[in-house]
Amino acid sequence: MKKNDWSRREFLRMSAVAAGGSLAAKTIVPLPRDLIRAPEAVPASDRVRFGMIGVGMQGSWLLGTSIKLPGVECAAACDLYDGRHTLAREIVRADLPVTRRYQTLLDDKEIDCIVAAVPDHWHKQVVVDAVTAGKDIYCEKPMSHSAADGVAMVDAAKKTGRIVQIGSQRVSSQIGAKAKELISQGMLGELTLVEGWLGRNDPTGAWQYPPPPDLSPRNLDWDTWQGTVPKRAFDPYVFARWRCWKEYGTGVGGDLLVHLISGMMFMLGINEPPQQAFSVGGIRRWKDGRNVPDVHAVVYYYGELPVYMRLNLGTAMPETYRFQGSKGILELSESGLTYTPQSGKDSAPSYYANSFPRAMRDAYVQKWHQENDP
């Protein structure tokens, strides 16, 4: 049996809860990689040829990972910056067809589907154009730049009958799948509160990416890159750090909160929007001209379940979920699951009995031990 070549984004420590009655926290141990079967080879007749739209930070990783899958081949790549044409050919092959016009990929009948990793403000147009051209598409999260864009994307997918998949890593996580299984089995009893958080504390984590040194209007179609938003003069920092501006990105909400929310919904089997949401935050750390918050906390009601999510680009905190229920706490991190069971019962006579007269208190304590001691 071959071992899988797991990517950096995939969960490496799948696990099962140890049995026992102790109330100590139980760290759920890793599953050996060699117990997971690698994909089988795919016949040449079943090969999937995809076109890559956007070969930036996330796109280049998706491209390099996709071509490692059995039966998958990159047929062409598109980016508005010519330097990424070079990068795409370095990743795939020296003669890979490249272009600035993604419509060229959509018109190519030899391309079966599209993988897209473009700035948020381009998601709707790329997805609508792809499905209208008869192509299935995988698009990076967040789904859309606005709610209206999302509705248009759903309408286009329904009208054409094409597949639209939005890349949200926690929904594909094996550790998330294990947490979903445990929660559905009633491990936590009555769910009372869900928390999630993630923090960073460095310039790269706050999207202060270095622009390519050669970037200029000569090798970048700056006007097309801006799309339909109000035009501004060429700015290499806006190109590299578009997540910092609401005209192009969706801030920590679309970049990071989407992971926490989609993962939570997957693990709890929720497929509906919250009934209420209350948010606070602001630009607390990175006062670099951005117009989206670097601190963002939201309290939701999903039905009657309170959910509290917080993001902070000014203080590092490992990504964590904490599912709290009447039978204990299930905590999920990037390295595993930890379950802390709780009995929900008194472990000793109530201290309120200290307000009883002595004889009454002694009688209460004696009766409590008779009824509760093993």
Question: Could you characterize the architecture of this molecule?
Answer:
The chain has 374 residues and is of the alpha/beta class. It has helices at residues 57-66, 83-91, 102-107, 123-132, 147-160, 174-184, 222-226, 236-240, 251-268, 358-372, and strands at residues 26-28, 48-53, 72-78, 98-99, 113-116, 136-140, 164-167, 191-199, 276-282, 295-302, 305-312, 317-325, 328-333, 336-341. The chain has an eight-stranded mixed sheet with strand order 1-14-13-12-8-11-10-9, with helices on one face. It has a six-stranded parallel sheet with strand order 4-3-2-5-6-7, with helices on both faces.
Would you summarize the structure shown here?
Residues 1-23 and 29-37 have low confidence and may be disordered. A hairpin with a 2-residue loop joins strand 12 (317-325) and strand 13 (328-333).
Features:
single chain; 374 residues; alpha/beta; Rossmann fold; Dihydrodipicolinate Reductase, domain 2; 3 domains; eight-stranded mixed sheet; six-stranded parallel sheet; 10 helices; 14 strands; 22% strand; disordered N terminus
